[in-house]
Fold this protein.
Amino acid sequence: MSHYFENDINLKSNVRELSYKYNSSFFTFLSDNGVFSKKNIDYGSKLLLETYLKEDNINNIKVLDVGCGYGFLGIVISVITSSYVDMVDVNKRAVHLTKRNIKKYESFKGNTFVSDAYSEIKNKYNVVITNPPIRVGKIKLLEILEGAFEHLEKNGTLYFVIRKDQGALSIKKILEEKHKVEIINKDKGYFILKVK
């Protein structure tokens, strides 16, 4: 089985449409085989998004969505908060879907492109947000989380979701060696962490 963070060109396409409602805003997303959470919008991503949208000072800022999949987090954040959002993924099919999904929203501001974590990132952002791919292993996971701070403005913030049984507390402890970390929400075993 190929993972969603690999580029498997032989994988047959099976595009489907997923829907999501936030308050009175309605969104649809094209999904496909070979991308994360292809059949429904991931609960952890929804919890991360909805927790983030309750935060202060998130309108009209610059956001980077790392491991964007088909663009769920970044598109909703841009449309709801009028922020500029760059969305990156190592998976070319995911980025292709994100490009198609962006076209549905005139108010979307931002861009999407292929990048292995931060390899192609040149800018700085107020926020980095990610539902990181746990299956890449702890070293790559920490590279994604720690690497955020090289691409954040001064006083920038990292938001991410991780399940308790995937090492949420040990990851929190490692990040606390250098940063201020708080758990701002938890539900059904998912932890939402905010790192300053």
Observations:
- The CA atoms of residues 124 and 160 lie 18 Å apart.
- Strands lie at 16-22, 25-31, 62-66, 84-89, 109-114, 125-130, 152-163, 181-187, 190-195.
- The longest helix spans residues 92-102.
